[in-house]
Amino acid sequence: MSLSRDSKYKLPEGVRTPSRFRNAIGKYRLHRSGECIGCGKCAAVCPYGVHVIRRGRVRVENAYRCVGPDCPHPCYEVCPVQALTLRPNPDFEGLGDFRWPPELLASTWHMAEFSHMPPKGLNYKTGNSDGGFDKLRLKFPVPAPGSPDAPKTDEDMDVGVELNRRGDHAHRVRIEVPFYGGGMSYGSVSITTMLSRIRAAAALGTFCCTGEGGYPDELKPYDDHVITQVATGLFGVREETIQRVKIVEFKYAQGAKPGLGGHLLGEKVTPGVARMREAVVGYPLFSPFPFHSVYSVEDHKKHVDWIKAINPEALVSVKVSTPTDVDMVAVGSYYAGAHIIHLDGSYGGTGAAPDIAKKNIAMPIEYAVPKVHGFLTEEGVRDQITVIASGGIRTPHDVAKIIALGADGVCTGTADLVALECIRCHNCESGRGCARGIATTDPELMGLMDLDWGTQRIINMFLAWRRELIRILRRLGMKTLKELVGRTDCLVHLDYLESR
Amino acid sequence: MPSKYVIPTRTVAHRFRPITRSGIVAWEEGCLKCAVCVKTQCVYGVYDHRGLDPRQMVDAIDNECMNCLRCVQGCPGELIHKTVNPEYQSLGDVHWTPEVISKLWAQAQTGKIPVSGAGYPGPFTGPGFDAMWTDMSEIVRPTRDGIHGREYISTGIDVGRTPERLLFDGTGTPQPNEARFLNIPLPILLQVPAFGAVSEKTIRGWAAAARRLGTLITAPWGMLDAIPEDLYPWVVPAVSEDAGQEAVMAQGVRMVEIPWTEAGRKTMERVKNASSEVLISVRLPLEAGVEETALSLVREGASILHLMADAQGAYLDGTGRYLKEGIQTVHLNLVEAGLRDQMTLLASGGIAMAEHVPKSIICGADGVVVDFPLLIALECRMCRRCTRDLACPVEIPETPGSWVASRVINLVGAWHNQLLEVMGAMGIRDARRLRGETGRAMFFEALDEEIFGSMNRVENGCELE
Questions:
Q1: Overall fold of domain B157-448
Q2: Taking CA atoms, what residue in A is nearest to B420?
Q3: A343 & A435 share domain
Q4: Does residue A20 sit within a domain?
Q5: Span B22-90: which CATH code?
Q6: What are phi and psi of A221, to 5 degrees?
Q7: d(CA B54, CA A380)
Q8: Residues B124, A495: C-beta atoms closer than 8 Å
Q9: Chain A to chain B Cβ contacts (< 8 Å)
């Protein structure tokens, strides 16, 4: 059954939203020496507004936008007195890691500011992990095959995903973009971060998950865009919260710490958090692993039935991690009545987790999705269930690749935080929490971020993702994202490339 | 059920400031002297503790900085920068990476499991153990919760010849069998590293740690003099071909190690003649054909084999294979011969992280033998100056034995808890049942080929992006 697009849906506008810090970090630095005669030629040739003229003096104010040697009109070449020197920014080199190298961070910041992909100078497609997504390439026929009935404008291209493919009496939910926000609980991130993500999801016509820490009242206006999570600790789960939403997510495991439970330190159980989780202030909270009420697929069905009894129209999503038998788990979830199987790969995650678990337990999402897609197809039920992938989705290219590997859509987490200027220092848990005010409940640090700023940054990033996905679809000669699902013939893995 | 094995840990301070990944570069020229300087607003108070350590001549701010970059991004004069520390980048080598070394330092200091936020930052895969993942249980196979003590997970292993079956005489009375083994509470044995600036104090500290952990430490024969006799039961002297070591056997040594050479057979006979109680571990270099040597040794009656890779965990013959493969071939060869259950297989060489313990066991070892982490726990930087007779930059020989023991106990305690985490996730309750359980692991080579092997064609005129 196919559903037509919601005619009321209108894509939000991209609005330029610069960094909330004084000095944005870019790849290059431009040094202007005392030789400068203030002729303004640099400001005139620069396409990116790096140089600004103020009261007759020319200054480098936006060095972070400089694309370096990729620039078509380098200022340092037109300067009549050679007063300008281009240098790599030393701060830039120290940023990030293999999965999120500095260029990926900076390009995500660019998307969050401008709602477009970076013009030049940055690799915004792959990281440096040397495997998986970073070794996969999209394969485009040249010239692009073109599709005569493809919509002329990007706004009319269909990248949405229908989430209820069972065709039962549950809500017919469609998301307008092929991504929704993964669960990050109240307490692990600030309420501003939580609301920014949910408001962005509402504007983009998609959803965002509450995580395990309960359903704060501030989210009420966005009920139609909230996924509430039922996790092993059952924190903050009430009949009323289940009845408020269109999608309920069972979290059996999470990619950041597959097979392990959670632990909220006593000092993080503030009065607000304690009230939400119905716990005692100052006492640590353990989220066990696994659901001790579920030791079989039959038990799992009981779980799903329980939700359907409380909210018959709710879609049920089952979030699992990626063990060897993930394909069996997916099929079992389907037969238990789930609408969505959400696979969370082992290299992603935002929460604090033991390093040994992040690196070593369960498989990366790039392996899990094709396994599950193939097995569901063999069972003849693939078109009855929605497959959502998460755990290491950083870019629109990752989205296109994982969909070509067999997912219908993705869940994001880290990318949202990077849009809010997370620099991946990995110190979310230390001291008062995130020093940049993203993952903290410290009142002073929370004040570093404004709700409207956060909302727009996330909207901007996803608008850029949507644009890029449409560009990819057009190059492949496709009209809808649905056509890309499972099209592994559109992918090449560089390690297996046959030499011709 | 035996009583629960817990390793008590407590914070044991560093003596030197650890080398950190990046340093702060801040200069004064052009400073606007803002009324509220970003340096006073540091969330971690790093600039408040500023000061030059006179012994090391390093600035305290570099060690305490948590890399939030707030000051870098806030200074109106753009006078503060963070740069990668070349001293950090040059730590260790390709296997003992700066990350591995600094995480070992932290574990020896705190005794805690390394925990961080924001997902896994490392490469997709790598050589040796980096090319495998352990499994987890989900929905249909319950996990175990060992780390918080709610379920009992046994990490104990038997070292030696374990009984295959019970023997009875005609009257039904159980008969003594040939079983002779030690039960140690965790699958981690210690070994004095191949190099290192160590003193008698260091060796005594290590031996004391072995006793408190209930495990064993292998040490060269000559080092036995440095160790008090009451610690001998936890020391495994490495016996060479010459020397009349037999006299010591009676004094409490429970196990000896003999490096494998043809002449080693004679040594083995000598030790056997001197004492029927002492267990013998045969140390086999990991090289091509090791599985055949292992098989013939076990057929001849060897009950403990210790496979030794190089310091990077690779085959010693430079064939580019790793301990991961070595353990598997030896293990499977013995399984096929029906001999595996009679003997104990230990593995060493390049065991650098807690994850190497369960991974070695999954490949088929009973336990691992840890060497260089014992040094790194003492703040060793793997600079190898000691191999050139230069002074140790972190003064390891001067450190008291009690500090040495506490640091090693912290490190092993953190590893033990990480082993519990991984076993809990797999739903395995006994380390002995994990041995050879490759069904609870995923191997990069097989998985990658299965999933991506067919994505190999680029038709004419196609562009890759």
A1: TIM Barrel (3.20.20)
A2: A260
A3: yes
A4: no
A5: 3.30.70
A6: -60, -15
A7: 71
A8: no
A9: 289
